[in-house]
Specification:
Length: 343
């Protein structure tokens, strides 16, 4: 046996170091191959494509601007592409992060057995912690809106509310909207899962109909929209991930109903399209009952994704709320009234 520091020991150490470097290089290569190259149709003008590996999973995200942090969270079947008409405008005032959640868009696909809002929310908090993001505004659309509610409740319970400043919830999924409850249960079955994984990817016409239904006026669908969303579902494992989301859908709705009671005081802006057929506007009243410090803006004639359908109006409303404290929430109005009565 050689003495410590002998040539044979140093040779062994050098060999181990070489093997480790080779393993790291192979891992990075495999991750790059798995992530693939973002096609031109899915790129966001005025933003920088970046990636980060958290807990062994590589996230793709887009970054633009400087100023207070603003985190954008996409919805079901979406990815960072959803914010292509917003990032450049918002980056004039904010440091904007638009992520592809794990197994979505061009982030790494995982083999997780389940995909719950709680798990995704914990991942987003981990993302924010990694970059030292604090006092951020969170914008979440549809399932991303539900995720934002869960995220805020987790932050509240784990003494991380310093990471959040305000919430903007765009047609967030919630237990008070009945649309899709039967269909999600059907697709969560074994046969439904087989349909999504093996049939849906081949029927592009169904995907086009799905996107059209999310618009109040399909004539406002911009060129490249169908192709862009399709690109985010092309990486292997995408449709299997959708099935995992659907199998957790009803538990997630129940979790939202419980979590929302914990964040009633957080300043929140609800944004909705008056022609939203995915998450019914009738559920707004119950949401506002729980979110006591919330305001509502309705985009007349728009559907489920006003940030795509009427982006200029959406960007203006969002910036007004985040930069100029407008519109005032019911909580603020009530506080002023109470103060006036007291004086």
């Amino acid at each position: 046996m050689g003495r410590c520091g002998s040539p044979s020991d140093r040779g062994d150490i050098a060999e181990v170091g070489s093997n480790l470097n080779h393993l790291v290089a192979m891992t990075k290569t495999l991750q790059a191959e798995q992530l693939g190259t973002v096609p031109q149709i899915a790129r966001i003008a005025g933003a920088e494509e970046r990636s980060v590996t958290l807990d062994g999973v590589t996230w793709r995200y887009w970054f633009a601007g400087s100023g207070p942090p603003l985190v954008l969270i996409h919805g079901f079947m979406g990815y960072s592409f959803s914010w292509r008409f917003n990032m450049q405008a918002l980056s004039r005032y904010f440091s904007v992060y638009a992520m592809d959640l794990p197994s979505c868009g061009f982030s790494q696909r995982t083999n997780a057995n389940e995909c719950s809002l709680v798990g995704d929310a914990q991942g987003v908090l981990r993302f924010m912690e990694h970059f030292g993001i604090e006092n951020a505004d969170i914008v979440g659309s549809s399932r991303g809106g539900g995720l934002s509610i869960i995220l805020a409740s987790i932050a509240s319970r784990t003494n991380q509310l310093h990471r959040l400043r305000r919430l903007v919830l765009i047609s967030p999924i919630n237990p008070w909207s009945s649309h899709g409850k039967v269909l999600t249960r059907l697709f969560a079955t074994t046969l439904g899962g087989l349909y999504i994984v093996h049939v849906q990817p081949r029927l592009h016409v169904i995907s086009r109909r799905y996107i059209k239904a999310l618009y109040g006026d399909p004539l406002r669908i911009a060129p490249g929209t169908f192709e862009g969303y399709r690109a985010g579902l092309d990486p292997p494992g995408s449709f299997e991930h959708l099935v995992r989301i659907l199998r957790s859908w009803h538990d997630d709705l129940e979790a939202i109903g419980q979590a929302i009671n914990e964040i009633g005081g957080l300043p929140t802006l609800l944004l909705w399209g008056s022609r939203d057929r995915a998450v019914y506007p009738s559920s707004i009243h119950q949401l506002q009952r729980q979110l006591k410090n919330s305001a509502l803006v309705m985009f007349q004639g728009a559907g489920h994704m006003p940030y795509e359908e009427v982006p200029d109006e959406f960007n203006r409303v969002l910036c007004d709320f985040l930069l100029h404290d407008a519109p005032r929430t019911r909580f603020e109005i009530a506080a002023d009234r109470k103060e006036a009565i007291g004086s």
